[in-house]
Backbone:
């Protein structure tokens, strides 16, 4: 995706302002960079990335790029892996975010007449409050539930006739299952679900859609860049449109850092274009997707990215092919008789990388036939010939973490 003239000017203005603000992360990061020499897309693409660890290092407010009196709010990303990241917002940032979010609702066909049931958490996290402000900006009725308390969720959903459910995929599934279990589906008025874009499989998607009887939309965003609401899918199963008047997206090879052509899978890198409180330049999200080339049938000119299919931290490279755990799961899902449990061993044997994929198979299937099917499908979809090994159900160790399924013995 090319930077338009206006995006380019906006990005340069952001960089200069951040660099000039005393104590800001970029005043040090760009100390030796002459920003007046950034004249072309290529110059821009040679600028260093901004990493989440750098934001942690300047905790709490080293990313702030305006005087204190202009800051009206802060949000924070979860601190589960160490120091949290604090993002300060100006009045305009808060307003811009609400406008983007309202645009998301409109893209999903949601109107003032809708009643939006908001289950993501409120507080330091950007989720709940983003859904709320967008809803109010649109003029719909917000039902600010927050997470938990299923009894109350369902009571409000029925009594207030909620028409839109905003949730994470796992919480949407939990509610769908409860509704099914209690046999109250005919009292539920939901028509649409707006689901925070994390990696979630088609099986889960179908279950939520069917059990709730709703159309699902994926919404994208991250705390460091406003929060959820910088893009959304326009119809069932479609890619997500991104609001490129607020953010500029690049897709890079996570290993080399090179910008990839449109259509190729890689890591999303985001530059904010008009953010005041905490501008970020070439911020590595570690989310994996691709830019979807061409125009959308819906007529919107906003560029599109595919659903997020994983995290670049989980990527493995075998014989020059980038492989993500999500892709392995997708291959296994295609084949009847194969369960979702798997384990990968990568070895270097006689000068060559060899990837062995162990997977569990249901009783009553021919192991040899399934191995052939997995090998074919893997070659077809990912472009790599693997050594398939079928094992019985229950033979592989169970682990919560995807990374524990991949053993790289090459190094
Ligand atoms: Zn569209």
Residues:
């Amino acid at each position: 995706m090319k930077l338009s003239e206006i995006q380019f000017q906006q990005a340069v203005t952001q960089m200069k302002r951040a660099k000039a603000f005393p104590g800001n992360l970029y005043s040090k990061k760009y100390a030796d960079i002459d920003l007046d020499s950034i004249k072309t897309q290529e110059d821009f693409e040679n600028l260093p990335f901004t990493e989440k660890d750098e934001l942690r290092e300047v905790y709490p407010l080293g990313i702030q790029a305006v005087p204190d009196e202009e800051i009206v709010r802060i949000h924070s990303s979860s601190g589960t892996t160490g120091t949290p990241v604090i993002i300060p917002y100006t009045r305009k940032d808060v307003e811009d975010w609400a406008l983007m979010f309202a645009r998301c609702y409109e893209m999903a066909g949601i109107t003032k007449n809708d009643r939006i049931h908001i289950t993501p958490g409120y507080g330091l996290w950007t989720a709940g409050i983003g859904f709320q402000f967008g809803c109010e900006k649109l003029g719909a009725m917000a039902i600010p539930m927050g997470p938990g308390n299923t009894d109350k969720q369902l009571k409000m959903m029925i009594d207030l006739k909620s028409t839109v459910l905003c949730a994470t995929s796992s919480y949407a599934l939990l509610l769908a299952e409860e509704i099914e279990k209690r046999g109250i589906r005919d009292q539920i008025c939901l028509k649409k679900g707006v689901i925070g874009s994390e990696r979630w499989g088609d099986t889960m998607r179908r279950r939520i859609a069917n059990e709730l009887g709703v159309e699902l939309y994926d919404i994208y965003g991250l705390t460091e860049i406003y929060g959820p609401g910088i893009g959304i899918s326009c119809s069932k199963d479609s890619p997500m449109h991104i609001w490129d008047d607020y953010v500029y997206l690049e897709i890079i090879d996570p290993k080399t850092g090179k910008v990839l052509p449109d259509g190729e899978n890689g890591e999303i890198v985001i530059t904010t274009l008009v953010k005041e409180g905490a501008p970020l330049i070439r911020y590595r999200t570690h989310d994996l997707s691709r830019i979807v080339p061409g125009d959308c049938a819906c007529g919107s000119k906003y560029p599109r990215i595919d659903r997020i299919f994983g995290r670049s931290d989980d990527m493995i490279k075998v014989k020059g092919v980038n492989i993500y755990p999500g892709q392995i799961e997708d291959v296994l899902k295609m084949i009847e008789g194969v369960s979702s449990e798997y384990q990968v061993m990568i070895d270097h044997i006689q000068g060559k990388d060899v990837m062995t994929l162990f997977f569990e198979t249901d009783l009553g299937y021919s192991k040899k036939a399934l191995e052939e099917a997995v090998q074919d499908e893997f070659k077809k979809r990912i472009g790599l010939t693997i050594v398939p090994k079928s094992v019985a159900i229950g033979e592989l160790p169970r682990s919560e973490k995807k990374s524990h399924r991949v053993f790289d013995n090459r190094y």
Remarks:
- The chain has eleven helices and 21 strands.
- The two ends are 36 Å apart (CA to CA).
- The first strand starts at residue 71 and ends at 76.
- The chain has a mean pLDDT of 92.
